[in-house]
């Protein structure tokens, strides 16, 4: 016995942290503002603004940042799911209630993604940015591949130069800035090309399913 008090996990565990509800509320508020801003950009008449809200780059970046900043995989999953679900509802609610476009069946699909693919990406980024080796690098390359494979770089960059630049910038952040270890960055760069090809094929399939 050394007389020291046993460490308590009730106040520091991510499961019971009193800071988590406010963080979830902040994620929900950010999602609300992002959804409204994205729909407003769609209707702004500015092609580059509509592109930023429609292509995946900014949304992947938002989910990745939430994942990296979270103190645990559980927090990464819940914060990203709340952000993306609220963002999706806000986007389509603004279109239906403010702009009079009516409700879209695509909202249901995006809510499903908010509870499945989105938290999976956030958890993958959370873990990959803290570890070394080829698997973390491949996970980060996958996130960057979604950006490039679904962006303007492989489409029509000349017609969407702002979006193409944003795609490249976000991909660079994902593979070179978010990882905490140099070897993970190198592995991410090595896997980037095949990950982009796979992501492009997967996104084509998703678009076909969503109609």
Task: Explain this structure.
By secondary structure, this protein is mainly alpha-helical. It has one domain. The protein contains 9 helices and no strands. It has helices spanning 20-42, 47-54, 57-69, 73-98, 106-115, 117-128, 134-149, 161-177, 182-210. The longest helix is centred in the C-terminal third of the chain and has 29 residues, at 182-210. It is globular, with a radius of gyration of 19 Å. It starts with 19 loop residues before the first helix and ends with a helix.
Topology:
Layout (H helix, E strand, L loop, with lengths): L19 H23 L4 H8 L2 H13 L3 H26 L7 H10 L1 H12 L5 H16 L11 H17 L4 H29 L1
Number of structural units classed as domains:
1
Bin the helical content.
over 70%
Q: Which structural class do you get from the secondary structure elements?
A: mainly alpha
Question: How are helices and strands ordered from N to C?
Answer: HHHHHHHHH
Bin the strand percentage. Answer: under 5%
Terminal residue distance: 67 Å
Principal-axis shape equals globular
Taking pLDDT < 50 over at least 5 consecutive residues as the criterion, the unreliable ranges are 1-14
Number of separate strands: 0
Radius of gyration: 19 Å
The helix tally amounts to: 9
Largest sheet at a glance? none
Overall average residue pLDDT: 90
Region (Disordered): 1-20
Keywords: Membrane, Transmembrane, Transmembrane helix
Pfam family, one: DUF6518
Transmembrane segments: 48-69, 81-101, 107-125, 137-155, 161-179, 186-203
């Amino acid at each position: 016995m050394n007389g020291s008090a046993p460490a308590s996990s009730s106040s520091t565990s991510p499961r019971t942290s009193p800071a988590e509800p406010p963080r979830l509320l902040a994620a929900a508020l950010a999602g609300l503002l992002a959804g409204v801003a994205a729909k407003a950009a769609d209707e702004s008449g500015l092609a580059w603004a509509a592109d930023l809200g429609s292509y995946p780059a900014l949304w992947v970046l938002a989910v990745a940042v939430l994942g990296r900043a979270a103190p645990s995989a559980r927090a990464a999953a819940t914060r990203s799911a709340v952000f993306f679900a609220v963002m999706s509802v806000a986007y389509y609610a603004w279109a239906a209630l403010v702009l009079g476009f009516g409700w879209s069946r695509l909202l249901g699909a995006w809510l499903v993604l908010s509870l499945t693919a989105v938290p999976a990406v956030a958890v993958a980024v959370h873990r990959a940015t803290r570890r070394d080796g080829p698997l973390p690098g491949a996970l980060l390359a996958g996130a960057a591949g979604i950006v490039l494979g679904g962006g303007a770089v492989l489409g029509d960059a000349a017609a969407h130069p702002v979006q193409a630049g944003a795609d490249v910038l976000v991909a660079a952040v994902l593979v070179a800035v978010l990882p905490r270890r140099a070897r993970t960055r190198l592995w991410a760069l090595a896997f980037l090309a095949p990950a982009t090809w796979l992501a492009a094929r997967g996104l084509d399939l998703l678009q076909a399913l969503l109609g």
